[in-house]
Amino acid sequence: MADSxxxxxIQVQILSRPELLxxxxxxxxxxxxxxxxxDISACHLVLAMDEALTNIIRHGYAGSPDGRIWIRLSxxxxxxGLRVEIVDRARTVxxxxxxxxxxxxxxxxxxxxxxxxxxxDRLEHAPRPEGGMxxxxxxxxxxxxxxxx
Amino acid sequence: MQPxxxxxxxxxxxxxxxxxxxxxxxxxxxxSPIMRKAIAEALKAGSAKVVLDLSGxxxxxxSGLATLVEALxxxxxxxxxLSLCALTPRVRSILEIARLNTVxxxxxxxxxxxxx
Lengths: 149, 116
Fold this sequence. Notes:
The complex is a heterodimer. Chain A is about 30% helix and about 25% strand. By secondary structure, chain A is α+β, with helices and mostly antiparallel strands. Chain A has a single domain, classed as Histidine kinase-like ATPase, C-terminal domain (Heat Shock Protein 90, 2-Layer Sandwich). In chain A, β4 (about 120-125) and β5 (about 135-140) form a beta hairpin. Chain A is globular and about 35 Å long. The two termini of chain A are about 15 Å apart. The relative contact order of chain A is 0.20. Chain B has a single domain, classed as Transcription Regulator spoIIAA (2-Layer Sandwich). In chain B, about 40% of the residues lie in helices and about 25% in strands. Chain B has a five-stranded mixed beta sheet with strand order 1-2-3-4-5. In chain B, α1 (about 30-45) packs parallel to α2.
């Protein structure tokens, strides 16, 4: 079943609407488990993706419901795990703006970037030359490390 | 695609001096305002204790966590006890990663939360 993700890649396009996050989560959760992630690891990848999408909707598109977001999913080439690439055409956001708060400071908010960093094995986020942002998230099963199946 | 607006069913029960709120579903960016409103209403009602039974919550994002932290702060100001109970393994792991598992009073069961 996991091999079904190797080729071709799966790509979906959604509009920047919070109510669309739930169906995307369901799809990615199922594909993550097909790609070899256990339930908790799949949940963590889904949450990291969700936080990235929330940032795009809230900050990149500033709440506009008609922005476009592309989500591309592929199995990792060197072992079990899933790669999620998210691309948008929103305004460029400085990733350092979302550095996150000190976890010892108990207050609402500021957790999204911390969660993204903590939940996945690889996180890249950078402005695209043509505009918008590109975020890459990779998650492997809890018992593996990069490059080791 | 034009999905209907987000919904989050929240069962509200009074048990002695406690108000127990039991949301059913994901608590995410679209739904956390619904939980925030339900908690605020429980605080206004003058409960001595608010218990959030999270057994029906399979998923929570940072907006849900922020709602919980805000509720805790509001309860402390009003000198109302706030407890969480019956966390699903997924939500428990998310609280742990955010290091919030040590901030909240967390009980295994609803009965323990009401009595605690």
